[in-house]
Recover the amino acids of this structure.
């Protein structure tokens, strides 16, 4: 009991203790704010990638694609762990506005709108057909013309607030899309007299996936015309991927394993087919693995920031060490008195460790409260700074980031608080040990006062 | 007399301190025996080793050689836990500079030894008794109005009386007082001595260190320490 009594009194009466509390509070505040923002960005980015591809992707990186997919789509359709499938063609193309010589290189994705919207979150990325996605490939005023959906950053510019300037209706824009058809062996296929096929599509909507690389370089076409333009039609049609949505309650690794097993069987059954070699390039991946090259960069950044904040934690440990060293140096007489009334060395350590625990706990609570309060107002603060001083954390005209993420994860808060308390205990360990080793006679004799 | 007749017995105590490269012998074969209920004054000049002797008797320090027995038991055979219990329950220290804890009030300083010997649950059980005992001691010392005061709000004499109350809190077998009046004026010091005399008359064993002959004369027995030896 005396340990908590003295620890609390040291805390309240010794002004220097509040410097330790302040140091812990600032460290916790910074870590809570930065980690929440960073974790929010990573979580948001990861979720958008999941929405973009669905749960599992059976696909190839080869632009030639793979054949005999219809049979596998049937197999997947019969599996109880699969909710929906979407065949997809991915390729590259040149697009240019009609009657213009200017063109740009883009990625092009051929989808069956009805299937793709069941598997992915594509429907939610549309603007003009937000509540009417089945008609997203129908250009305004000319529903019979072939439509195309543009990645939003291909179609529109953002203002400094990050807002897109949509017009009241879909503008009438025609785009010439040029693809380079490939044979099943990967050679350029002649399309008439040319090695390129060009077809005109009409701007029918925009897609805002929230993924910068996608929104700035992807156009979406109906799957059949793209198959034709890429040389993937004909008697043996080809695609580059099947995106799969798993049934409710099926975990991605489990679903992926089952689909991989199905695929291996299917591949073996079709080993004698003329284009069987294309099946060898197909991989079955969970969504995270499929988007690993994008997600990994963010996760590495998060890991690096966590490591950097480990260094901030070391600073906190050092500050607590210095403060406790000073406090204990001033409290040697008290230690002598405590030992003279029978307090053991271990209990002296426990007294100062309890003191350090109080410092860590109070610093953590204050830092967390401050951090959560700041996060709650972060977007308002940024808005105010932008209005009055033109300051933005991210230039919204350049980055695909809306609000500053401010949803702190309870588990992360618990870990940060626990680490802060542990840092305080670590900082106080050596001074406490020194206090415990003090001999009462060395602190109570008149000559040493 | 047998060993068991003495409450504290010291035999052939030696203690040497190092001061840099120099070894300074402080005690050179001190023998001492205190019977229960005695009031013993140890007198000697500054540096004669009397405080060192007091610390060794109270197990705050260890002799280089020699034996200290408490109720017939050799203190060198005590483990760390037993030594802590010995300091907590069997001896009560009164220091020249009072050594009260600034962060605690008068009442808390007095019941500190009881708190130190009990855990949280033990304290919840004993706190009423401890507060009652502390209040009783403080009232008996004329400090009934000072229970919630902090040490810095008290005079020197009052602080020393609080220190005596703390020493008596766990009803120790021996009170060891190291120059209890050394930091007080003569009138106040006289008051402290009267308290020690009164305690002794009530049966409390008191061992007091002083360098003042007049103060030592108030004890039942005076032992003189000079050059690390009993005279």
């Amino acid at each position: 009991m005396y340990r908590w009594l003295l620890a609390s009194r040291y805390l309240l009466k010794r002004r220097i203790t509040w410097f330790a509390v302040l140091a812990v509070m600032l460290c916790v505040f910074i870590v809570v704010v930065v980690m929440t923002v960073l974790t929010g960005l990573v979580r948001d980015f990861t979720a958008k990638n999941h929405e973009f591809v669905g749960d599992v992707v059976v696909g190839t990186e080869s632009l030639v694609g793979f054949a005999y997919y219809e049979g596998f789509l049937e197999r997947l359709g019969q599996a109880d762990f699969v909710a929906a499938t979407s065949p997809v063609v991915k390729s590259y193309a040149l697009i240019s506005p009609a009657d213009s010589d200017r063109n740009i290189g883009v990625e092009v994705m051929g989808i069956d709108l009805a299937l793709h919207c069941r598997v992915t979150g594509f429907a939610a990325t549309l603007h003009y057909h937000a509540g009417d996605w089945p008609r997203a490939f129908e250009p305004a005023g000319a529903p019979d013309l072939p439509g195309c959906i543009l990645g939003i950053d291909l179609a529109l510019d953002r203002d400094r607030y990050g807002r897109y300037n949509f017009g009241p209706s879909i503008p009438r824009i025609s785009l010439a899309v040029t693809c380079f058809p490939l044979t099943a062996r990967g050679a350029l296929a002649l399309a008439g007299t040319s090695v390129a096929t060009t077809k005109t599509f009409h701007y029918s909507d925009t897609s805002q996936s929230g993924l910068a690389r996608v929104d700035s370089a992807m156009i979406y076409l109906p799957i059949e015309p793209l198959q034709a333009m890429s040389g993937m039609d004909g008697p043996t049609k080809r695609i580059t991927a099947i995106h799969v949505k798993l049934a409710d309650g099926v975990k991605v690794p489990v679903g992926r394993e089952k689909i991989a097993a199905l695929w291996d069987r299917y591949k073996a059954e079709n080993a004698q087919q003329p284009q069987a070699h294309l099946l060898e390039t197909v991989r079955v991946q969970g969504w995270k693995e499929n988007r690993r090259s994008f997600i990994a960069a963010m996760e590495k950044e998060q890991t690096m920031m966590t490591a950097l904040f480990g260094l901030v934690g070391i600073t906190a440990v050092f500050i607590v060490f210095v403060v406790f060293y000073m406090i204990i140096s001033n409290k040697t007489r008290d230690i002598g008195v405590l030992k003279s009334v029978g307090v053991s060395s271990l209990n002296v350590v426990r007294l100062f460790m309890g003191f350090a625990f109080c410092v860590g706990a109070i610093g953590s609570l204050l830092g967390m409260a401050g951090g959560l309060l700041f996060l709650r107002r972060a977007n308002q603060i940024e808005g105010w700074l932008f209005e009055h001083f033109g300051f933005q954390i991210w230039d919204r005209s350049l980055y695909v980031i809306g609000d500053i993420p401010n949803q702190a994860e309870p588990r992360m808060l618990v870990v940060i608080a626990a680490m802060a308390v542990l840092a305080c205990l670590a900082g106080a360990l050596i001074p406490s040990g020194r206090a415990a080793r003090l001999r009462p006679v060395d602190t109570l004799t008149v000559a040493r006062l | 007399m047998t060993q068991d007749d003495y409450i504290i017995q010291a035999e052939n105590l030696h203690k040497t301190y190092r001061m840099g490269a120099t070894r300074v012998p402080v005690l050179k074969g001190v023998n001492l025996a205190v019977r229960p209920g005695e009031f013993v004054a140890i007198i000697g000049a500054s540096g004669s080793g009397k405080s060192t002797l007091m610390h060794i008797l109270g197990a705050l320090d260890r002799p280089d050689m020699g034996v200290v027995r408490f109720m017939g038991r050799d203190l060198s055979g005590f483990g760390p836990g037993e030594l802590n219990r010995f300091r907590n329950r069997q001896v009560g220290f009164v220091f020249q500079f009072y050594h009260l804890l600034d962060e605690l009030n008068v009442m808390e300083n007095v019941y500190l030894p009881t708190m130190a010997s009990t855990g949280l649950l033990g304290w919840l059980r004993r706190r009423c008794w401890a507060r009652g005992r502390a209040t009783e001691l403080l009232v008996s010392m004329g400090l009934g109005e000072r229970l919630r005061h902090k040490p810095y709000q008290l005079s020197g004499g009052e602080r020393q009386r609080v220190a005596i109350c703390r020493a008596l809190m766990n009803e120790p077998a021996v009170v060891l007082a190291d120059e209890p009046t050394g930091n007080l004026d003569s009138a106040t010091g006289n008051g402290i001595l009267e308290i020690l005399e009164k305690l002794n008359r009530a049966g409390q064993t008191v061992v007091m260190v002083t360098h003042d002959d007049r103060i030592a004369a108030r004890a039942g027995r005076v032992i003189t320490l000079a050059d690390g030896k009993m005279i």
Summary: Chain A touches chain B at residues 1-2, 5-6, 9-10, 13, 333-334, 336-345, 347, 439-441, 444-446, 449 (CB under 8 Å).
